[in-house]
Specification:
- It is built from nine helices and 14 strands.
- By secondary structure, it is α/β, with parallel strands linked by helices.
- Strand 9 and strand 10 form a beta hairpin.
- Zinc ion (ZN) binds next to loops.
């Protein structure tokens, strides 16, 4: 399977997997026109859509894509039913598509029913883990989000994170406001600035890199506890909650 991406809306990614026989799978189509255009250009046959959660910038394109390609199966969690999901999937399910196995994992925190899809070596994590950061936590589900991002962290180190937004630069700026002297984050920030100037996008990124540059995955480190004024006895989860709350009101522009 070959991975490609479409930039959509302000900062969304729509991921597409296709094979040499020109069949394809679309992940989180927030819009339809760009997806249909690409499919027509490439002469692909879409077989499935995978949805991670029910936000409109992830599901907004489903109905129009289905009008154009009515045979597509739409996989998604229960919360995406009213947006066109025809095959409801849950944690532990295995989907067999185009001779590949896709594992479904429950990754709540951003929404109550958020799921991620793992097709080795890719994890389609929607709005759970971002490069350098993580999704917003709604309905106070901090414990869920902490567990979800740490689950993604635990995937093999050569897994590629395919999340749904290009937030990397703002996430790194926030991280540097916390850890201004962290060499790994500083170097990565410089590198990403160059990549973004070339309009390539910073994703996908290896989990191995995220473990080093994503402060939300490093919340047990004393350096971070110290930087945000928490004692060493505080848990990784408590540090996570503090960081996430600070990020919510961080103005980087
Ligand atoms: Zn969302």
């Amino acid at each position: 399977m070959i991975l490609t991406k479409i930039f959509a809306l302000n900062d969304n990614y729509i991921w597409i997997l296709y094979n040499i026989n020109n069949f394809c799978i679309i992940i989180d189509p927030g819009v339809s026109h760009l997806v249909i255009k690409k499919i027509q250009e490439k002469k692909w046959n879409p077989v499935a859509i995978l949805l991670t959660h029910n936000h409109i910038d992830h599901v907004g394109g489903v109905k129009n894509i289905l009008k154009a390609y009515s045979n597509i199966i739409v996989f998604g969690p229960e919360e995406t039913k009213k947006f066109g999901a025809t095959r409801i999937v849950k944690n532990g399910d295995k989907i067999r598509l185009l001779d590949k196995e896709i594992n479904v994992f429950f990754t709540p925190g951003h929404t109550l029913g958020h799921i991620s899809y793992y097709l080795k070596p890719y994890i389609f994590s929607g709005d759970t883990l971002f490069s350098g950061g993580c999704g917003r936590v709604f309905k106070d589900r901090f414990a869920d989000m902490y567990q979800s991002i740490n689950f993604i962290k635990s995937l093999p180190k050569n897994t590629f994170l395919c999340c749904s937004h290009e937030y990397t630069l703002s996430n790194l700026i926030f991280s540097l406001s916390i850890l201004p002297f962290d060499r790994k984050i500083k170097n990565y920030y410089k590198n990403i600035k160059k990549v973004l100037l070339l309009k390539k996008g910073s994703l996908p990124v290896a989990i191995n890199i995220e473990r080093k540059i994503n402060i939300f995955l490093r919340t047990r480190e004393n350096e971070i506890k110290e930087a945000i004024g928490l004692g060493y006895e505080k848990s990784g989860f408590e540090v996570f909650v503090e960081l996430r709350k600070r990020k919510d009101c961080f103005n980087w522009s």
